[in-house]
Write a structure and sequence with these properties.
Length: 383
């Protein structure tokens, strides 16, 4: 069921799978129940360069290709999606903008800290009135001498409870007809940077999701990422990349659910034989396996386009849309195969089922992905 185009990808998959099985599998259910961020295991992940997957080696990163990075996220999420979320958000939407838009001085200062995991990153775009409508950001940034004063509230910030650095989208142009946003590098120790309580969520419970409050938060002018007014440009480019990571996370959830379903189907006896011998169960498993393989190919295609340096936004949206749908479908079928036990916290499929749904929501809902895909197809920017 694995697709490894090159030996290096198989080595990476085997290595990360061993780590996930050894370090995350024994604690995955408990940290979900208690909504606990496993600091000790995160420390081990930092040492393995999981926080610098595609950061150049000159800054202390692993500098691996995009398929390899997707495999890391996939294999971690196969065991514990909440920690896969931490890794993919850090690498995909916190580190990536530095690689694309930061000044040499910003890269030199921040990338080594991000790559080592000394700084855990967050991406802060979503607000109460700015989710899918990213152009409706209400957080403001007012220039005062050599600083910007930020005021506003960001919600549902992945890694928010533990982040050392957040990329904050804020208005810097206030013409109602043409508002402009910009992006600021805000360290958590800056005065006026406050965290809300951790969200009590349905899934991804081991990730410390919280609100961030900016109350007269003073940010040095040098911490402007990109240029004034480039918020939308940076946001769209970053979300294209982030969707690859969420697709990989969703794929990992689906793979974990399939493997759990197969194991259970071979063990569970009904009518004096394993339920795996029943045609209906075989049909479920056949569909799950086929769709997961198709999802993996779609994801890896988007990764290959990214590494070729060509436009990949449409393909990333396709991968995110399809992988997240397959995650929800596969986990639902896995619960069905488990019957009543699938609805019990005694089995991992219940957690997979809860974790899968949000992959259809964050980094752009499925409805937004369809908009992105349709626009690209209709304007002949793809295929």
């Amino acid at each position: 069921m694995q697709i490894n185009p090159y030996p290096k990808h198989k080595l990476i998959r085997d290595s990360v799978r061993h780590f996930a099985e050894t370090e995350l599998s024994p604690i995955a259910a408990e940290i979900d129940r208690s909504a606990t961020f496993p600091v000790e295991v995160i420390g081990k992940m930092k040492a393995l360069n999981y926080f610098g997957l595609q950061v150049p080696k000159e800054f202390g990163g692993a500098a691996i290709d995009s398929i390899s990075a997707a495999i890391v996220v996939e294999e971690i999420s196969r065991v514990c999606a909440a920690i896969g979320l931490c890794i993919t958000v850090h690498n995909g939407v916190a580190v990536y903008p530095f690689l694309q838009f930061a000044t040499p001085a910003q890269k030199k200062h921040y990338l080594p800290k991000l790559a080592s995991g000394e700084f855990i990153g967050a991406f802060s775009l979503t607000e109460a009135n700015a989710g899918s409508d990213s152009g409706s950001v209400e957080t403001t940034a007012i220039k005062k001498n050599q600083e910007y004063i930020l005021n506003g509230t960001k919600i549902f910030v992945t890694n928010g409870g533990v982040c050392d650095l957040a990329l904050i989208f804020a208005l810097t142009g206030f013409d109602p007809a043409r508002p402009q946003s910009s992006v600021f590098i805000v360290e958590s120790n800056y005065a006026g940077f406050l965290r809300g309580e951790l969200e009590d969520l349905c899934g991804m419970r081991a990730n410390p999701v919280s609100s961030l409050f900016l109350e007269d938060c003073c940010v040095p002018e040098k911490n402007l990422l990109g240029k004034i007014g480039e918020g939308m440009k940076i946001g769209l480019a970053t979300l294209d990349n982030g969707r690859i990571g969420i697709a990989a996370q969703a794929l990992g959830i689906a793979q974990g659910a399939l493997e759990a379903a197969i194991k259970y189907a071979k063990e569970r006896q009904q009518f004096k034989k394993p339920i795996a011998s029943l045609q209906t169960i075989q049909n479920y498993i056949a569909d799950m396996a086929t769709e997961i393989k198709a999802a993996r190919l779609l994801l890896y295609h988007a990764c290959s386009l990214k590494d070729e340096g060509v436009s990949f936004g449409c393909e990333a949206a396709m991968a995110k849309l399809y992988c997240s749908q397959i995650a929800s479908k596969t986990t639902s079928l896995a619960v069905q195969i488990h019957g009543g036990y699938g609805y019990s916290k005694e089995y991992d499929v219940e957690r997979y089922f809860r974790d899968a749904k949000v992959t259809e929501i964050y980094e752009g809902t499925s409805e937004i992905q369809r908009m992105v895909i349709a626009r690209a197809v209709l304007s002949q920017l793809t295929f």
